[in-house]
Specification:
Radius of gyration: 24 Å
Order of helices and strands: HHHHEHEHEHEEHEHEHEHEEHEE
Oligomer: single chain
Distance between the termini: 64 Å
Number of strands: 12
Strand content: 5-15%
Number of helices: 12
Helix content: 40-55%
Strand order of the largest sheet: 2-1-3-4-5-11
Structural class: alpha/beta
Largest sheet: 6 strands, parallel
Shape: elongated
């Protein structure tokens, strides 16, 4: 059996140094196209394949990263996990999935590297952490946060602009003549979590339109599940006067609300509009189909994996990043689309 080609063999074939071959393999930017083409030709001719497992073991790494999310039965997190796994696989990494249940102790366990012996880094979507938790975390474990981080600075972060997204969603409802808009899953007070930020965006849009902000129209929920949306919508329909639109802070809440409104004989969008967040696949197949704010989940996953791998390769060489990913309002039947 012929010996497996090595980087040295590729370098000799291409007439370059082994370091240049390594730069091409790792897709470093500062390599000329001519040199890159010569190295790629040598790789193809010799049948060279990167020994990822061996390289990682030599570097004291496992080749695995952890994704910690609150609940996989909330479709947004399941869809996001799919994208993270695809991005990691394309970069030769395996993803371990940890479900925290939005319990602080389990988020802390992930943050402090409960499985550091198996994982090179962590992508974490926190819901229960306190600001001080990040300040005291184990700095040996590279971490990228998703969603809203409990405190400024100290950790790489990827997310959408939740204030702007909620403001745009509310402005869409206002453009349809809706004026008494309720928020399901909102928060008027408390620290700057996703619920608070999206409520702030709603409030900005209402005030810009010259409409009073009514805290009684902001309904917090116990969880962001179908049943919570259904209960909140049913309670709002008992109000006098009733809302003429519902801004639901995720699609599960919105789809639960649609069901409750149907059971109560309310027509959407004839009687009131409903809009959600996340653009989960089910939102396209509900009756009526759901207008929703769509974060770019693919880009969130790509950015998070890229930031984490950079941090793993150079823990201290890269300054902290706060990357904002795009979103858009997708108009469907629940708001007359």
């Amino acid at each position: 059996m012929a010996a497996r080609p090595r980087i040295k063999d590729v370098a000799e074939y291409a007439g370059v140094s082994p370091k240049t071959v390594s730069n091409v393999i790792n897709n470093f930017e500062h390599v000329s196209e001519r040199t890159r083409a010569a190295v790629q030709e040598a790789i193809d001719a010799l049948g060279y394949r990167v020994n990822i497992a061996g390289r990682q073991l030599r570097q004291g790494r496992t080749g695995m990263i952890t994704l910690a999310v609150p609940e996989l039965d909330v479709a947004y997190f399941a869809e996001l996990a799919k994208h993270v796994m695809a991005e990691a696989d394309a970069r030769g990494r395996t993803v371990l999935i940890h479900q925290t249940g939005a319990v602080r102790e389990r988020e802390l366990a992930a943050l402090h590297g409960f499985d550091a012996q198996f994982s090179d880094g962590l992508i974490l979507s926190p819901l229960a952490l306190h600001p001080r938790d990040l300040a005291t975390r184990d700095r040996r474990l590279p971490v990228v946060l998703l969603g809203e981080r409990p405190a400024e600075g100290g950790t790489d972060h990827v997310g959408i602009d939740n204030v702007t997204a909620a403001r745009e969603a509310t402005e869409h409802l206002l453009s349809r003549g809706r004026r008494r808009i309720a928020v399901i899953g909102g928060a008027v007070r408390g620290r700057q979590g996703t619920d608070r930020l999206r409520t702030d965006g709603y409030r900005e849009a209402m005030e810009k339109a010259g409409l009073p902000f009514e805290p009684d129209l902001v309904l917090p929920v116990d969880a962001y599940h179908w049943r919570d949306g259904a209960r909140a919508a049913a309670a709002l329909m008992e109000r006098d006067p009733r809302p003429d639109a519902l801004l639901c802070l995720n699609d599960h809440l919105a789809l639960g609300a649609l069901r409750a409104l149907h059971d109560l004989g309310r027509s959407v969008p004839a009687d009131l509009d409903v809009i959600g967040f996340d653009d989960i696949e089910a939102s396209r197949f509900s009756v009526p189909s759901l207008t929703t704010v769509a974060p770019d989940k693919h880009q969130i996953a790509r950015a998070a994996v890229a930031l984490l791998l950079e941090r793993i390769e150079a823990p201290d060489a890269v300054e902290l990043r706060d990357q904002v990913v795009g979103h858009r309002v997708i108009v469907r039947e629940s708001t007359g689309g």
